[in-house]
Queue: 2 jobs
Job 1
Amino acid sequence: MDYQIKPLSDKLGAEINGLDLRVPMDAETTTTINNAFVDAVILVFRDQELTAQQFFDAAQQLGEPMDQHLSQYKVPECPMVSYVSNQERSNDGKRKLLGKAWHTDHSFQPEPPKATLLHGVELPKRGGDTWFANMRLAYEELSPTLKQRIEGLEAIHAYRESRDYLTKEEREAEALTDEEERAKNIVHPVIRTHEVTGTKAIYINPLRIKRFIGLNSEESADLIDELTMHATSDNFTYPHSWQQGDVIIWDNRQAMHRVEHNYDFAEKRLMHRIILKGGKPK
Ligand code: OGA
Ligand code: MN
């Protein structure tokens, strides 16, 4: 297949034109695509027309799909594929809009997914961009002082229903010792070394980190703010404006992302979603 890869920005991202994901990739293409993926942090495959099953078959060429725990969001004809929709409502009738704040996916798991894939099935006419932050570049450009402060630091990640940042009250509601936190929750390093490339990235999730080992909740909140502000500045981010047919894969080991719900809510925004197995962050 004759395809082209070109950068989407000087921060991160590459787009691939002319590759039909319904056709199995040969070994050479798989290698090229996987190399481009870990290098660019996100890849956008243009002009894909895929059923959920075809999307799933394509994803299997890039990794091993994982079950997604929220059963109410599974696509019935292909349950390894979930959907992300702006049409969902909570019991109180409020619209449930996921992914508004910067995060990396499922970091509360002992082995979080290495990658997430989204296929834009129905898109608003404008807006609804997904923003990405290059956490590898953000690490490289960190001040020596901050680099030193997070060297060897570990973070406590805990699952919560909420998709908002933790408040001070929430952080303090449950005061556990470091050892109790290790037993109850998941602890990951703040500097993560990439399994494939050996490069380092800042690995934080402002939605799920309760605090850092050895730091109290206030010190932790300040440090999370400082790292998030740095990593999500214009120097390291790229907003992806979706086109019909886009399939995106992002590397959760070296990216944070968020979606901007800045479109007309009368319009539907529907994505199909797959996550790929990853290792324990080290
Ligand atoms: C996700 C997510 C963002 C989007 O699926 O994990 O954060 O643009 N989605 O819908
Ligand atoms: Mn997400």
Job 2
Amino acid sequence: MFSWFKLQNRPIVIAHRGASAIAPENTLAAFSLALECNSDAIEFDVRLAKDYQVVVIHDATLQRTTNGRGKVHQRTLAELKQFSAGKWFDKKFETEKIPALQEVLQFVRRRVGMNIELKHYGTKKEGEILVEKTIQLITESGAEKCCLLSSFQHQLIQHAFKFNAKIARGIIFHTFLITKNSFGRVLNTTSPQFIFFNKVLAMKKRITQFRQQGLACGIYTINTEQELHKALRYGSDCIFTNTPETIRSFL
Ligand code: G3P
Ligand code: MG
């Protein structure tokens, strides 16, 4: 079984929002294709619906990736299920719906790793509910070892660390955290095993330093051979990609 605590001796391929170049992002179809492409793990984004169900969707609003409108957190899960999450991508994906986290956990059944990215820009209390509900669902499905929680909102990872330190954690690097002191504080309060960089912010020196401190590093989003070679030169442990099949073939 995949474990974020025992990585292989090679860079791992993480299908970013599933195999999102060939299927609508963050849908079961995209996750299924990611598995077919032999991805080591899938990455997906979670946020809270109005009834505090944890749902899998990247944006705070519906219009880009569904045929709905308005804000995700103003709709219940049942309401969100009325929309197509695949038609925008291709008519053949019309029946795809916004998945609940529970459905993804059941679908994956611990066959690959899961990088669950927490997205929340609302109140502190609701952020904590998102973290706690997510951890509860992971625990209930017995998938603690194959799930990694990450976020741009480091206070969410801080809460995850307090709530259940047994689930692996990742920090997504921000430009505003570059100053040593503030970043040191984030590392102390979240105690992550991973740090992820946008390919624009990734620097060999920075990655080498973090790896020397025992942190595994990842770069997103790597879709071409050229980008892959650069990521490997930098020593990236994890390759986030929308095209897992292509990246796998280059590796
Ligand atoms: O976790 C890496 C990546 O997914 C972060 O950016 O916007 O694609 O969620 P975004
Ligand atoms: Mg993401």
